[in-house]
Write a structure and sequence with these properties.
Strand order of the largest sheet: 14-11-13-12-16-17-15
Radius of gyration: 22 Å
Number of helices: 14
Shape: globular
Structural class: alpha+beta
CATH architecture of the domain at 202-440: 3-Layer(aba) Sandwich
Largest sheet: 7 strands, antiparallel
Bound molecules: flavin-adenine dinucleotide
């Protein structure tokens, strides 16, 4: 996300503040090391960027030296089973080792040749570096867990410039911290080994509801359907839900808008062609029978994709980067969806521009047993839904940006914070200035993460806003000052 830095638009004025002064186009661990050593020895602000898809602005900073990992991709090494370096155990699953900047679409397309896939995102350009360090959700997370849970080993360069391997037998603290503790904090990952899983058929049931704006039947019908999500999760269904209370305000349609709800339900490896349809049709029939009138329309399509990759090609999130957009989010436990107060909180959370409810958690995330444990936000282990809302602003209109940020933080996300005060947020897709971020992003893991950070990076060679141990510094104007 570029957040009012140089916009990739010739007609827009341009500020250089989102850009570093120098960039190391690093293509090997050695080059990464040279960049880190140079920044450490010369006390220069350091940033790390792969795709630049970060909503929290962590991958860019003014007057910094940037290590750009964009081309540390591919170089795939396949394993029928995997023995982490220095371990005398063998992990009995297939796995792949890849460059840390390998993108989602590269990973899926490469694995597809071997009828394999992996837990990775739906944004084609998102890379392993940011994804696996932040948690990482996927349409398969409800079965296999989060992205961080899949990592068997990393090669990385530490803040002191050492090229090391971290796994459950070597450098265990770092191995724990980099899987959930966030990007650009403990060093730079150069290669990552993750579990791979069979690419089976996947059933998709794509259901939409549309009404004119402000119809009670819109909120009645979607509240009814969302209350069924916990039962669907028990049957291993995942769902990507897009809700626009006003498609015109959200910029989805021009002219007079509608209220629109789209839920893309997915069932990995269904036992038969109709399993997902049979799970969902009673709810759809209930909505059609109860709420159907001149105002409410529904539409359904049902498909079995032969491979995960084919499903991805149809449903990939091609939003891209380089836009002025602020997001806010909250992780919602299953019981939230049945609470009486949920409906009002949801309406407030979505605002006019709307948002997404990702049902990407479930048994796979709740019961995950990552090798050696990991530092993923414990709130994920109780959550069913990752709820995200967002708004955009007119480029370089600071007043509009301030208004939008205020609404997202103090009104929209606050509605969910009040509803589930004990939960937290998914750090990779959260409000960039989340209050009490330590608790919201890491809960009870924060103390250990902080301790490890102090031990491996006492001089804060790596620093980013709302990252672990970031409290020791403050951005004053364009400078970073020690507190
Ligand atoms: C269109 C879109 C779709 C998305 N879809 C999903 C999704 O399906 N599931 C999901 O969980 N998330 C998704 N995300 C969020 C995504 O996980 C985060 O934006 C993530 O931080 C992107 O990582 P990156 O490396 O691609 O981006 P960058 O902006 O380059 O990096 C993000 C952070 O990771 C750090 N970093 C990057 N590489 C390394 C490395 N090698 N070593 C150490 N630190 C590193 C950066 O310094 C920065 O702090 C999506 C985002 C977008 C914009």
């Amino acid at each position: 996300m570029n957040n009012d830095s140089c916009l990739p638009d010739n007609s827009a004025p341009c500020s250089g503040l989102g850009y570093p002064t120098y960039v190391v186009n690093a293509t090997s661990a050695k080059e990464v090391k040279l960049g880190i050593d140079f920044a450490r020895k010369n006390n220069i602000r350091l940033t790390v960027k792969a795709s630049g898809h970060d909503y929290l602005k962590r991958s860019a900073a003014p007057y910094s030296l940037s290590i750009w990992t964009r081309y540390m991709t591919g170089d795939f090494e396949y394993h029928d089973n995997f023995t982490p370096k220095g371990c005398d155990i063998t992990i009995n699953t297939t796995a792949v080792t890849a460059g840390a900047a390998s993108s989602v679409s590269d990973i899926y397309s490469d694995l597809d040749q071997y009828n394999l896939t992996a837990v990775d995102g739906m944004g084609p350009e998102v890379t392993l570096g940011g994804y696996a360090t932040g948690g990482g959700h996927s349409p398969l997370s409800n079965i296999y867990g989060l992205g961080s849970d899949q990592v068997y080993e990393v090669e990385m360069v530490t803040p002191t410039g050492k090229i090391i391997v971290a796994n459950e037998c070597r450098n265990q603290d770092l191995f724990w911290a980099v899987r959930g503790g966030g990007g650009s904090t403990y060093g730079i990952l150069t290669r990552v080994t993750i579990r791979t899983v069979p690419s089976t058929p996947i059933a998709v049931y794509d259901f939409t509801i549309e009404t004119p704006v402000n119809e009670t039947s819109f909120w009645d019908s979607i509240s009814y359907l969302l209350a069924q999500y916990p039962a669907l999760a028990d049957s291993d269904v995942a769902a990507y839900t897009y809700i626009y209370p006003n498609t015109s305000a959200a910029g989805v349609t021009s002219g007079q808008g509608n209220s629109s709800f789209q839920a893309v339900f997915a069932l990995y490896n269904p036992t038969n062609q109709h399993e997902l349809e049979e799970l969902l049709e009673p709810f759809v029939q209930h909505i059609n029978a109860t709420y159907y009138d001149q105002q409410l329309r529904t539409e359904v399509s049902s498909t079995i994709f032969p491979t995960f990759y084919e499903m991805f090609m149809k449903y990939a999130d091609d939003e891209g980067a380089g836009v002025d957009k602020v997001v806010g989010s909250r992780l919602l436990p299953p019981s939230t969806l049945k609470k009486g107060e949920f409906r009002d909180a949801l309406i407030q959370f979505l605002g006019d521009a709307g948002g997404r409810l990702y049902m990407v958690s479930g048994k796979g995330v709740w019961n995950a047993e990552p090798r050696g444990g990991d530092s993923v936000n414990p709130a994920w282990r109780n959550a069913l839904i990752h709820a995200v809302t967002s708004q955009s602003w007119t480029p370089l209109d600071e007043r509009e940006r301030d208004t939008v940020e205020h609404e997202i933080n103090h009104v929209q996300v606050e509605a969910m914070r009040r509803l589930v005060p004990d939960s937290g947020a998914y750090l990779n897709e959260a409000y960039w200035d989340e209050p009490n971020f330590q608790q919201a992003f890491w809960g009870s893991n924060y103390e250990r993460l902080h301790k490890i950070k102090k031990a491996v990076d006492p001089d804060d060679v790596f620093w980013c806003h709302v990252c672990v141990a970031s409290e020791r510094w403050q951005e004053v104007g364009n400078y970073l000052c020690r507190i």
